[in-house]
Amino acid sequence: MLASPYMALGWIYYKHRNPDLAIEYFLKAISLDPDIALMPKFVELIKKERFGWQVYNSLGWTYFHNGNTYKANIMFKKSLNLQPNRSEARKGLGYINFQAGNFRESEQMFKKCLAINSSPNPVFELITGKNAISPFKLPTTPRTKLGRIHLINGNNQKAISQFSEEIKLHPDQPDAYDGLGWAYLAENRELEARNAFKMAIRLAPLNNSARKGLNKAKEVIINKRLIEKTVSTGTLSQPNKN
User: Which residues contact 83 (CB under 8 A, 6 or more apart)?
Assistant: First the structure.
């Protein structure tokens, strides 16, 4: 097993009273094989050590990315019980609820996460299917997820606010530009939407959601210009009745 050497090194450093280095190797082992952390000896260790909450968070994210949200949920809740004033477990629970469509619970977790940590680390989500030209990993954040929730609920102005705040903090955040483009489109601000989608594509070229949005924005712009031209031409060609 690839995880075993890292676990062994973790135990060596732990026994030599170097817990900070030990936890690095433990977390590496867990990222390769989360079930290795469920060994009775290790379970007893994390019950008594201060780094137990970090282990549970690592387990939570490993299970989440492996598609096992049931176990991920359990791990994040264990971490939250150990360290209720930390943001990471709340972030994880927010992602789990978002994926399950529990948007109210997800929104609450994301807001609490951001209240504790205004700039949490991004989560790299694997994007497949119709929103990907080919599978790719897209960095998302609690704030971009909040923006998506507002979009789903039809609160476009709140969505714009969340996406804009994320871009202000992290100018190279592709998910924020994609979400901002769709929010602008919903508000009939197609020129701004076009610019946002272009930036989203530049930052994440495989993001088909942004490409579809850009095509939609261009279509709306062209149609509006055709209507304006038709109205203008019709007005000029009207005969003088005097």
Answer: 53, 89
Per DSSP, 38 falls in state G
**Cβ 194 vs Cβ 218: under 8 Å:** yes
Instruction: Please write down the long-range contacts of 187-195, taking CB distance under 8 Å and 24 or more positions apart.
Output: 187/156, 187/157, 187/160, 190/217, 190/220, 190/221, 190/224, 191/217, 191/221, 193/217, 194/218, 194/221
Instruction: Give the CB-side neighbour count of residue 156, counting CA atoms within 13 A.
Output: 10
d(CA 27, CA 62): 10
Span 122-227: which CATH code?
Answer: 1.25.40.10
**Dihedral-angle region of residue 140 (phi above 0 means left; psi in -120 to 50 means alpha; beta otherwise):** beta
- Number of residues that make up the chain: 242
Please state the CATH superfamily assignment of the domain spanning residues 1-116 in this structure. Answer: Tetratricopeptide repeat domain (1.25.40.10)
**Strands in the chain per DSSP E:** 123-127, 136-140
Residue-wise pLDDT tens digits, 132-161: 999 999 999 999 999 999 999 999 999 999
Residue 140 to residue 84: CA distance in whole angstroms: 23
pLDDT in tens, 175-212: 999 999 999 999 999 999 999 999 999 999 999 999 99
Average pLDDT, the chain: 90
Query: Could you tell me the residue ranges of all domains in the chain?
Result: 1-116, 122-227
